Amino acid sequence: MQKIIVIGCPGAGKSTFSRELRDKLKLPLYYLDMIWHKPDKTTITCEEFDRKLSEILETDEWIIDGNYNRTLEMRFKACDTVFFLDFEKNVCLSGARERVGKPREDMPWVEEKTDEELEKFIEDFSAAARPRICSMTKKYKDKNIIILKTRDESQKYLRSIVYHGESQNNCKR
Question: Is residue 109 situated within a structural domain?
């Protein structure tokens, strides 16, 4: 595992999982939210985002945290490993609510309240975004695809990783 993407519904804990993975594997971690968003809550252009993402993808080692559906296939093509945190909607809604008011290294500002648009995205994730992710996992079945269904399962997986190597995980798709 040297080129890893971590995807899943907002609030699933992708960034927490990615940080723990970074600490275990000693790989550079890139948060797509930190690339896309500016501290003043505006965004960069799609062209600038794509350029920055392409520069990362050209390097030898990385973990990329985030969905960003428009660039999902680009990241699938470049990675060797996919972690899909495929958690229940209520777990993700709770996760998104729990991070309000807390500084995060994956976001350039502190969320002051629960964002209604984000909650709606989480509510609709299974119908709107999950099918594309599942389609990509089938299309790129040559990749190491690890689908984790619960926080407990993701923690067990992280505990199974040995520094710069890993034990086998028999996660089922």
Answer: yes
Would you say residue 97 has pLDDT above 70? yes
Beta bridge partners of 148: 85
Q: What is the Cα–Cα distance from 109 to 31, expressed in whole angstroms?
A: 13
pLDDT in tens, 35-52: 999 999 999 999 999 999
Number of residues that make up the chain: 173
Q: Is 171 contained in some domain?
A: no
Domains: count for the chain: 1
CATH code where residue 109 lies? 3.40.50.300
List 53's β-bridge partners, or say none. Answer: none
Contact 143, 74 (CB under 8 A): no
- b/e sequence 99-116, b meaning 16+ C-beta within 10 Å: beeeebebbbeebeeeee
pLDDT, tens digit, for every residue of 106-130? Answer: 999 898 988 899 999 999 999 999 9
Q: Return the closest-CA partner of residue 119 out of 96, 151, 99, 100.
A: 96
Print the domain residue range for 152.
3-166
Find the largest Cα–Cα distance for the chain.
Answer: 43
Which among 1, 162, 171, 172 is positioned nearest to 79, based on CA atoms?
1
